[in-house]
Amino acid sequence: MAKKKPYRIFLYFGLVLIQRIAAILPREVNYAIATALGTSAYKLLRKERAKTMRHLREAFGPDQSEEAINRIGRGAFVNLSKTAIDVLAFPRFGRKRFERLVHLEGSTEKLDRVLARKKGVIMLTGHLGSWELLAAYFRFLGYPGCLVGRRIYYDRFDRLLVSLRESVSVSTVYRDESPRKILSRLRQNHVVGMSADQDIDSLEGTFVPFFGKPAWTPIGPAKIALASGAPIMPSFMIHEGKSYRLWMEDPIWPIENVSKAEAIQKMTVMWSEVVERYVRRYPDQWVWMHNRWKTRTNDSVRPQEMLPLQEVAG
């Protein structure tokens, strides 16, 4: 249980105030504020900036100049602020705004073909671009579904985020709940959104390459795909100037005729490679504050820290 910290209540009411301001200001003004806040955070939050720079250098090495590293790092802070503003402004997102702002690369035909099999689809994204907006857009298009999310340590924050998602018709399934809830949604042929691109040692995972280094990666998406028959479809909502571009990649189908362990490993490598490709393409839109290589290959993850994904396909 998280310790009670009195300052959180002040942060909460400050966030509510910002949310109400974001709900009335024009989007251009909100983004100008987000840019200023992100730039200021980059300059003032020295520890977070130092972590970001370290992770960028670890990822790119000599492939990026120090000037480019700084530009990408600053952009990551700004993008995170814009993404937060997007979420706070969810109550204002309606048909006209989605139609005006979101440009779909290609069409939804590949998604429709997948759903025609009546197995549902795992819409996998990363903490890249405006990831929360991705689920909202598919709900706007009329696809039934939900988002699998982390339960926030402070209940007031958690309720606020869940209510903002609900304002755009996105329901939340907590990742510490029974995986049967996710399987039930897939059996109903829903689109289930997941973000699985972070090193979280409390989640069952495996090491796969990320920027050429072994990175602890959740295997939940692959296990659920194998248990349900639903494919994993990597998708990304990318900031593009004053609008967004939505990319949907080809589905990764459950691998058959190999052991379960081998199928899980191969599928996790496959979707992680897609995520890396997009992070390389839009490096200033990923959360480099997060240490993607926190868990080392000689570290051990205690079994009691694992979430109950074993019951999904065990």
Question: Would you mind describing this structure in some detail?
Answer:
The protein is α/β, with parallel strands linked by helices and 314 residues long. Helices cover 48% and strands 16% of the residues. It has helices spanning 7-22, 27-44, 46-60, 66-88, 95-101, 109-115, 131-140, 155-166, 179-187, 220-228, 260-281, 310-313; strands at 102-104, 121-125, 145-149, 171-174, 191-195, 205-210, 213-218, 232-240, 243-248. The strands form two sheets. Strands 1-9-8-2-5-3-4 form a seven-stranded mixed beta sheet, sandwiched between helices. A two-stranded antiparallel sheet has the order 6-7. The longest helix is centred in the first third of the chain and has 23 residues, at 66-88.
Core attributes:
seven-stranded mixed sheet; disordered C terminus; alpha/beta; 314 residues
The helix content is: 40-55%
**How many H/I helical runs?**
12
The major sheet is characterized as: 7 strands, mixed
Low-confidence spans: 301-314
Spatial strand order of the main sheet: 1-9-8-2-5-3-4
Shape: globular
Task: Give the amount of beta strand, in percent.
Answer: 15-25%
* Rg measurement, Å: 19 Å
Q: What is the H/E order?
A: HHHHHEHEHEHEHEEEHEEHH
Euclidean distance between termini CA atoms: 29 Å
Mean pLDDT, nearest integer?
Answer: 90
List the helices and strands and how they pair.
Blueprint (H helix, E strand, L loop, with lengths): L6 H16 L4 H18 L1 H15 L5 H23 L6 H7 E3 L4 H7 L5 E5 L5 H10 L4 E5 L5 H12 L4 E4 L4 H9 L3 E5 L9 E6 L2 E6 L1 H9 L3 E9 L2 E6 L11 H22 L28 H4 L1
Parallel strand pairs: 1-9, 2-5, 2-8, 3-4, 3-5
Antiparallel strand pairs: 6-7, 8-9
